[in-house]
Structure formats: C-alpha cells, structure tokens
Amino acid sequence: MARARGGCASEGSAASNEPDTAQSASAANTLAATSTSSENGDTETSAAGGPSKDSFSYHAVELAPTDALPYFDRELELQPGLRSRVDALIAEEQASMSPISSTSSRLPPVYELFSTRPDLRTELERVASGQPSTHTLDTHRYTLPSPTSGEAASLSDWQAAVDSAHAQLGHMDVRMKNIELLKKYGSNAWRLSNFQQEQNIRLLSEQLDLVKAETSEINRLRQKNHLEAGGKLATLNKRWTELISRGLQLEVANITTSQEVDMLKSKKRKLETELSLLE
To answer: Where are stretches of biased composition, namely Low complexity (predicted)?
Structure first.
C-alpha cells in the first residue's frame, strides 16, 4: 500500500489537478463538525466531572506573599557585588534546608506513561533497557516455495504449496485493486487530507497567537502595576526621608533652644544677684 500510494502521485494524471468541490465542501463541514463535537465533548466531560484517561493535574500550592517588584527594583544591576552576596545568602539558605522527598505534597503527582496501555508500556520499557525487538518482519509469507522433496513430496506438502499460491494470488489481487482505487481517488483524497491538516494548523496557530497575546498583555499589565507601585513607594520613601530629616532638625533646634534658654536663665540669675548687691 505504501509503495502503491507513492506511485500514485506520478500516475495521478487521470485525476484532476484541483480537488473536487463537493469533496472539499464535505471535508470542511466534517472538520467543523469535528471541532464542534470535540468542544461539546469537552464541555460534557467537564460538566459530568468524570476524570479523563491519563489526566494530569497539579496540587494547589500556597505561596508566601512577596513584595518584590522585578520590573522596578534594579539594585542588583546598579550596586556592584550585590548579586554575588545575594547568591551566597541563597546558597547558604538552601544548604540549611532539608531536601524535598518524592512523596511531598508540594510536588505534582508522578505521571505514569501509558497507564491504560500495558502493551505500549512494555514496549517502552524494552526500548529503555536496550533489548532487541522480538517482532520482526516475516518474509516467508511473501515467497512461493515448492516442496523441498520435489516430485516425491507427499500430497499434504503439495496441498500446502497450492494453498500458499492461492493466498499469494489473493493478496496480489487485493493489491492491484488498491492500486486502481488509488489511481482513481487517491489524488483528491490526499488533497482533502492536506486541506484538513492546513485547517487544523490554522486553528492551532490562531489559538497560539491568542495565548501569546494574552501573555504579552499580562506581562504588560504586570510591568505597569510594578512601575506604578514602585513610583508610589519611591515617593513615600522620599516623603518619609524628608519627615525624618525635619524631625531631626526640630530635635536639634529644640536642644539648641533649650541650651539658649538655660544660658539666659543663668544670665538672669546672675544679673538678679548683681542687682541685689547694688541695692
């Protein structure tokens, strides 16, 4: 069949160069129906709440709140040597932490490949272990041997050879019919298959573009929020510094004024003493 399909491309002059309009329309309708049915199937499955085969989901992990603003904080870039000190502190903290076991709830569950297909799992284990395959192509069925003992062979041996010849003739007849069918319908079927694949690629590309656009929008909003929060923090930090500076200035002024008041009081007492002596 593979060789016949390959040869059909060169012998497809009997088929038209353009795909049949009716078949193209039916392919488009089939693709739309498939997409609709898949969406409906997903909705029904989610509504029913039944788990799908080989489903994989993460456990919810509660993350500690953070006050980092990576789009605004640039101390690691502006202050030399700060990154190395931070890396050293992180390495020291990691060294003091106990390793996470494979059964920890913080890790996602172990995903088992081909959990519903033991035959594929066995084949995967065989390939992983490097063992040779036991399934080889049987070429004996494609040969037409005669009995090894020739004319002196028994009737059962000749009957087996005749049965093999009949089977080979039947296989050849089926192959010839398949070649004729490919010559007649193969070109349009191949074009329709390509059309369906192109439609699938187009739909997936549109979904990918939507996801990329959503990701870019999320990152843009995140950067905007970080910059706004950073600007507010910088303004509040500047205001706090000014208030602290004013408080220090007031404290210094109070101390200076208190000293001046003490000096004036001392001078007043001295003058009162001198005045009392003069009287």
So the answer is: 21-38
Give pLDDT tens digits for 113-136. 888 999 999 999 999 999 888 777
Interval 13-42: pLDDT, tens: 333 344 444 444 444 444 444 444 444 444
Give the DSSP letter of residue 67: -
Reference 8, options 177, 180, 193, 176; nearest CA is 180
Residues 6+ apart with CB under 8 A from 19: 188, 191, 192, 195
Does the pLDDT of residue 53 top 50, yes or no? no
Torsion angle of the four alpha carbons 179, 185, 187, 189, in this order, in degrees rounded to the nearest 10: -120
Percent of the chain residues topping a pLDDT of 70 = 76
Distances (CA, A) of 231 to 52, 69, 84, 225, 235: 48, 11, 27, 10, 6
Are 20 and 188 a contacting pair, CB within 8 Å?
A: yes
Please report which confidence band the pLDDT of residue 64 belongs to, taking 50, 70 and 90 as the band edges. Answer: low
Structure token digits, residue 254? 């109070």
Paired tokens of 87: 């890396």
Give whole-number Cα distances, 176 to 7, 10, 169, 181, 258, in Å: 13, 17, 11, 9, 117
pLDDT for res 277: 83
> Is there a contact between 109 and 51 (Cβ–Cβ < 8 Å)?
no
Helical H segments across 97-154, by residue range:
118-129
